[in-house]
Specification:
Keywords: Coiled coil. This protein is an all-alpha fold. The protein is rod-shaped, with a radius of gyration of 51 Å.
Length: about 130
């Protein structure tokens, strides 16, 4: 019968303080042994500003654009209603004038002599022969 292989690692391999990746890779000169953190660059002030304030500024801009569009739509709607009211008032005034002129025309037609009535022709006086 073949010898049995344990399915778990022995305790002495688990309790090592160094990670396995640092054991397998060659050590670079000047590097601290057993260091798991890489040296980080200091972040620039500009990068920190944008990282901190990009989302709030973008949200503020979007809200401002949305508010502007809503107010603009409301303003245009009110202006259209005002223009429509002015046009309707002008149409009503013109219709009243047409009705008045129509009444005047009908009155003048009533004053005209009928076909059987004699019409006196007045000759114009002037230096032209006709």
């Amino acid at each position: 019968m073949p010898p049995r292989i344990p399915l778990t690692l022995p305790r002495r391999l688990i309790s090592t303080t160094r990670p396995i990746s640092s054991v397998l890779r060659p050590q670079i000169i000047g590097e601290q042994p057993y260091s798991s953190q890489q040296p980080t660059k200091p972040r620039s002030a500009t990068g920190e500003f944008y990282k901190t304030f990009t989302r709030p500024v973008a949200k503020t801009i979007l809200i401002a654009i949305f508010t502007y569009q809503v107010l603009y739509y409301a303003w245009v709607k009110l202006e259209q209603n005002e223009i429509k009211g002015e046009k309707n008032a002008e149409i009503a005034q013109l219709e009243a004038e047409v009705a008045r002129l129509e009444a005047v025309r009908v009155e003048e037609e009533a004053r005209k002599p009928k076909n059987g009535d004699a019409v006196e022709v007045v000759k114009k006086k002037g230096w032209w022969p006709f």
